[in-house]
Write a structure and sequence with these properties.
The chain has 204 residues and is mainly α.
């Protein structure tokens, strides 16, 4: 377990170091604009005021649940790192221009951590915000929280009007694939023992 935590920390540091310069690179290159009839049918609106507080509060709520399940918490962080690496690779391989009529969303926490207050609009395929909320749904043990995060995943996906439909679909697929891959590897190679508390009846 300790080795896994160390590798997670190394992965986080690597992302924090690499991502700012990577975002500058992808913002400067030319991409393509997709014809997305689903996105075109939705009204443009700045929903930052609800999207980002919901995501950040959801992370805190999920952490409060997963802190009781150390193995599940470590697995979730590994899966999220894998999904993040896949997302960076996908952004590199699939250069896209932002949709026409883009309404910029403002996430002050991510801006300070990764974007260095630089406006980035081309980190599109696949959606990082959808990845975040969906992995919380996959990870939490409490059924009420699962239900909550499933509905929030659907709601956030519908509100992310800065993304093409394929960005949302890609996020759901790659997030699930990352979580499934890490879960499968853990079951195969880890010593089998339960978390400190396997009860699903916790309020958190």
């Amino acid at each position: 377990m300790a080795i896994r935590v160390i590798l997670i920390l190394i992965g986080i540091v690597a992302i924090l170091v690499f991502v700012p310069s990577f975002l500058i690179y992808i913002q400067r290159r030319q991409g393509i604009i997709l014809n997305d009839p689903i996105l075109a049918a939705l009204p443009a609106a700045d929903l930052s005021w609800i999207i980002f507080p919901v995501i950040h509060l959801s992370i805190l709520l999920a952490m409060a649940n997963l802190i009781h399940y150390p193995r599940a918490l470590v697995l979730t962080m590994e899966a999220y790192l894998l999904a993040t690496f896949l997302r960076l690779l996908a952004i590199y391989l699939v250069p896209l221009e932002p949709p026409k009529g883009l309404v910029l969303l403002t996430d002050h926490i991510n801006n300070d951590l990764f974007y260095s207050n630089t406006i980035v609009t081309k980190d599109l395929f696949f959606s990082g915000h959808t990845t975040t909320i969906f992995i919380l749904y996959l990870a939490v043990r409490n059924p009420l929280l699962k239900f909550l995060f499933l509905n929030l995943t659907i709601a956030i996906a519908c509100m992310l009007l800065i993304h093409y439909s394929v960005d949302i679909a890609g996020a759901l697929f790659f997030t699930w694939a990352s979580y499934y891959a890490v879960s499968t590897l853990e079951k195969k190679f880890s010593v089998s023992f339960p978390d400190n508390d396997v009860s699903h009846s916790r309020i958190l």
